[in-house]
Write a structure and sequence with these properties.
The structure holds 2 protein chains of 2 kinds. By secondary structure, chain A is an alpha/beta fold. Among the domains of chain A are: 241 residues, no CATH class; 187 residues, P-loop containing nucleotide triphosphate hydrolases (Rossmann fold), CATH 3.40.50.300. Chain A is 56% helix and 10% strand. Chain A has 29 helices and 12 strands. In chain A, strand 6 and strand 7 form a beta hairpin. In chain B, strands 1-2 form a two-stranded antiparallel ribbon. In chain B, a hairpin with a 2-residue loop joins strand 1 and strand 2. The longest helix of chain B has 31 residues. The chains are: A alpha/beta, B mainly alpha. At the A-B interface, helix 6, helix 7, helix 15, helix 17 and helix 19 of A face helix 4, helix 9 and helix 12 of B.
Chain lengths: 621, 294
């Protein structure tokens, strides 16, 4: 502590955020002033090319950095922009070339939309393959569609007509402007619900879908946001070159260079791609001019790619940042070992959750969830084979059964983590088995996982704000990391006792802590029905009591639960009714007492010697 | 009709070569979930090594495959040990970028060693043909196609009849359990990477006799190979072989009946159509990804 008190000023100066902002400001000013201070065309050219790649890499940081989809088609959008301007300018020689720049952006955006329809059906590896295939396909088209593209001979654009003294200025400053716009767009997306949704997709796509995140729409927006301004930048680039051909404009090395810039700088950072571009492009120029070009350039790019992946996967900026953080926080105790808070009261959440008074409940309660004859087979194995059950509204319903009886698979079918082969699922009177996981979440279904699936690279707070309780375009643009969304998340974290951990990365938490955060995450959806997969599994007895206390409290305010659990005192003390699953179908349903006395259940699951250890405790609790 | 029969036979022979090379790629994916973007580069490397063997030693290039294949195998083994193994637990995108980098480095090295001019391997029989009625079959195509089938057969025997083959399939199905029953998964993976690249190297030796090549030819090859394994279903060996034949026919027919220029677009079009309508490929199955992995 003494060290911290003696030099608070120095520590603040080392705060990566302020240091970074300072450096970015200085660099920005220098960038704007440079052409006025120096008319060295060699360096102006180098900066112009670096700007093109900075735009491409910054765009790429949305789809690849945030959403985690590695795209090698970024160069194609540069090329498409260039060709749009090139083709239009040669067909309309009397029109001012600059007027075509927005058209280049529209073209890039439209192509991204169409490509996205194909590409977004694929995950991980297939997506990379599609983007490469797309790049080559566009190149083949540009070579063969001679009447429009001029084929391999390429196109010559009109020579600029402005004063030779400022020859490069229009290119230079329009690229600076486009880069500024792209950075603004990237910065804004990172702060919105859309941004947290994209990072959630990167960390765990299946889980993201269960939190109401509309996967295809959000990925599509990310893909388009990654390409529109890149297309405009490509248009300026093509005009600057005044000559474009398929081999140059659709060279895969353009994509590689954009990817390298992103990786070198730090793919999940705002400024990293810009820094990376201003490192990689000058290196490229140097290799071209001083080291013989061609093969040396390949060795440089290839070697750099290999080295970065192996030794600096995070990139330069995150490495510097973690170094500074280490210096700043040296000697302070980590927070993850701290005690879990005592929890807040539900009363404080009434503004956030739609809580109801149970006194007004109908008797007998209508079914909230109804599963009819649900089936799923993995090859020959029938994991769920005609399961049917009812969860009455306002109940805490239990689901028990031997290992492998299909409990978790049933959960997965209910929230569409995996797709059912047949059967019906009804939620609150509406059939939901043909709906996507995110729509099911929007209709009031929340679910936790047996092995917690938090987004490991997000903070606790970000994990909770990632949930999207409905879909609207306006909501996607809402700021997630501060304001009302963040306040709501903090209240929920307070309720589960995890508020003091809000800025910790989820991966640093213990298993029990993760279970609590996952509960807060699901509550953020304000679901009607909460599916809990082994809420008491693998956590300590005190926490188990806390967990059952919270379930009761939430239930008393109208939340319905369906709980899978092996801890019999926990289930039988909490749940009514209880369903027993065996070999994929429901073999018994009833009150806890009926279930305990059912000879078939005793035989299949509980065992002859099963006695509930503390009958008394159950009734008291 | 004669033209069609001739095109069909030739395209099946070419398909056999594709099958060999694509098997290597899909095998590597099946065992270690790595999409080896450098596969095409190692095919071209195989072609250049075969060229040197033929040029310097005067050995028949198709016999030279006996020398080429072990060299590429050793290289693959070494690359796995040095580069792939350290990041084997990283996300798949890391290995994609790593092998992409490797492809560029290999292309650059080949350019420096052998030059960027078009190279061709021309044994004495390269301009001779077999005549079956009115059908002309170039000898090089026939020999090359048959050799590819033989090498593919050897690979098949290794995978199905040997202890190594069983270990490879066990490691592919469940690495953790394979470790438990005494299979050293990283050693197996290194051998698989070697075998996979060796298939590419052997295929390169054969295609080097059929078509001229430059270091940059590897882009066309990797596009073709990815299209084949995507069509067959990533990781499926049978799928790769089947779709290689389908692909060989589609490509040749496009070249014969539409135009050679558009034949190069076939692989990309196939990738799009397949992933749009059947993302798991012809014989691939969707992986079960909900099972608990912790």
């Amino acid at each position: 502590m003494s060290a911290a008190e003696s030099a608070p000023e120095a520590r603040r100066a080392l705060d990566p955020i302020w240091l970074g902002r300072g450096i970015a400001l200085v660099a920005g000013v220098l960038l704007v002033l440079y052409p006025m201070l120096s008319d060295n065309l060699y360096y102006q050219n180098m900066i112009i090319l670096s700007l093109v790649f900075a735009i491409a890499a910054s765009g790429l940081s949305i789809i690849t950095g945030l959403a985690g989809y590695v795209s090698l088609s970024q160069g194609a959008f540069v090329g498409l922009g260039g060709y749009t301007v090139g083709v239009l300018a040669t067909h309309h020689p009397d029109t001012n070339v600059w007027l075509w720049m927005p058209v280049a952006g529209v073209t890039a955006g439209l192509v991204a939309l169409i490509l996205g329809f194909v590409a977004m059906r694929a995950s991980g590896p297939s997506f990379v393959i599609i983007t490469v295939a797309f790049l080559f396909l566009v190149q083949v088209i540009a070579i063969n569609w001679r009447s429009v593209s001029g084929g391999t001979e390429g196109l010559s654009l009109p020579i600029p007509t402005w004063d030779a003294d400022i020859a490069n200025w229009p290119f230079y400053y329009s690229l600076v402007g486009i880069l500024a716009l792209q950075l603004l767009l990237t910065w804004w997306i990172r702060r919105t619900k859309l941004g947290t949704g994209l990072v959630a997709i990167r960390d765990d796509e299946t889980k993201a879908a269960t939190l109401g995140i509309n996967l295809p729409v959000e990925k599509m927006i990310a893909f388009i946001a990654s390409s529109v301004l890149v297309g405009v930048g490509g248009g300026v680039y093509g005009y600057y070159l005044t000559f474009i051909d398929p081999r140059g404009m659709f060279n895969i090395l353009l994509s590689v260079e954009a990817m390298l810039a992103l990786l070198v700088g730090g793919k999940a950072t705002l400024w990293g791609p810009v820094l990376g571009a201003f490192i990689v492009e000058p290196l490229n120029e140097y290799a071209n001019n001083n080291l013989g070009g061609g093969n040396t350039r390949l060795l440089l790019f290839g070697g750099l790619l290999v080295l970065i992946v192996l030794f600096l996967p995070q990139g330069v900026l995150p490495a510097i940042e973690s170094l500074l953080n280490w210096v700043r926080t040296r000697g302070r105790a980590g927070l993850v070992g701290a005690r879990i808070g005592t929890g807040g009261s539900l009363a404080s959440l009434t503004g956030r959750l739609s809580l109801v008074d149970r006194a007004a409940a109908v008797d007998p309660p209508p079914p909230l969830l109804e599963v009819k004859d649900l089936r799923k087979a993995f090859g020959g194995l029938k994991a769920v084979d005609g399961a049917s059950l009812v969860v009455p509204e306002g109940s805490i319903t239990g689901l028990i059964g031997p290992n492998g009886s299909g409990k978790t698979t049933l959960f997965n079918l209910i929230d569409d983590t995996i797709h059912a082969d047949g059967g019906e699922i009804w939620l609150a009177g509406e059939r939901i088995d043909r709906l996507s996981p995110w729509t099911r979440a929007h209709r009031g279904l929340g679910r936790t996982f047996q092995i917690t699936r938090l987004f490991r690279e997000m903070t606790v707070l970000e994990n909770v704000v990632a949930a999207q309780r409905s879909f609207s375009w306006g909501q996607l643009g809402r700021i997630a990391v501060s304001g009302s969304e963040a306040r709501a998340a903090e209240e929920l974290l307070e309720y589960v006792g995890m508020r003091s951990f809000r800025d910790q990365k989820a991966r640093a938490l213990s298993f029990g802590q993760q279970k609590l955060v996952e509960l807060a995450q699901v509550l953020m959806l304000d679901p009607k029905l909460i599916l809990l997969d082994e809420p008491a599994g693998g956590i300590n007895p005190v926490l188990i009591d806390r967990m059952s206390g919270m379930i009761r409290e939430l239930n008393s305010y109208g939340k319905t639960f369906l709980i899978v659990e092996h801890n019999m005192p926990f289930v039988l003390g909490l749940c009514d009714p209880v369903h027993v699953l065996a070999r994929g179908h429901t073999m018994a349903s009833g009150t806890p007492d009926q279930i305990q006395k059912d000879p078939a259940v005793v035989d299949a699951y509980l065992g002859d010697d099963f006695v509930l250890e503390d009958e008394h405790e159950r009734t008291v609790r | 009709m004669t033209e069609f029969v001739q095109a069909l036979v030739l395209s099946l022979l070419v398909g056999g070569i594709y099958a060999l090379v694509a098997s290597g790629l899909t095998l590597i994916f099946g065992v270690m979930r790595v999409i080896n973007i450098a596969h095409g580069a190692f095919l071209i490397l195989g072609a250049f090594i075969t060229y040197t063997v033929w040029d310097q030693l005067g050995l028949d290039p198709l016999v030279g495959v006996v020398i080429t294949t072990p060299i590429v195998f050793a290289l693959g083994w070494l690359i796995y040990r040095l580069l792939v193994r350290p990041i084997r637990h990283a996300p798949m995108s890391s290995t994609v970028l790593l092998t992409f980098g490797l492809a560029l480095v290999t292309e650059g090295v080949m350019g420096l060693v052998w030059g960027n001019e078009s190279t061709s391997i021309r044994p004495s029989y390269v301009d001779q043909s077999f005549h079956l009625g009115q059908v002309f079959l170039p000898k090089a195509q026939v020999y090359g196609g048959l050799l590819a089938v033989v090498v593919l057969g050897c690979l098949w025997l290794i995978l199905t009849k040997t202890w190594l083959g069983r270990a490879i399939r066990a490691a592919a199905a469940n690495p953790a359990s394979a470790e438990l029953v005494g299979i050293k998964v990283t050693s197996v993976a290194a051998l698989v990477f070697g075998l996979g690249l060796a298939a590419a190297g052997a295929g390169g030796g054969i295609t080097g006799v059929l078509y001229p090549f430059v270091p940059g030819s590897h882009y066309l090859w990797i596009a073709r190979l990815l299209a084949i394994v995507v069509l067959g279903g990533l990781g499926s060996l049978e799928g790769a072989v089947l779709s290689a034949l389908v692909f060989g026919v589609a490509e040749t027919m496009t070249a014969v009946y539409i135009s050679p220029a558009w034949a190069t677009a076939v692989p990309y079009a196939i990738v799009f159509v397949v992933l749009l309508f059947r993302p798991q490929g012809l014989l691939g199955t969707r992986l079960r990804d909900d099972a608990v992995t912790a």
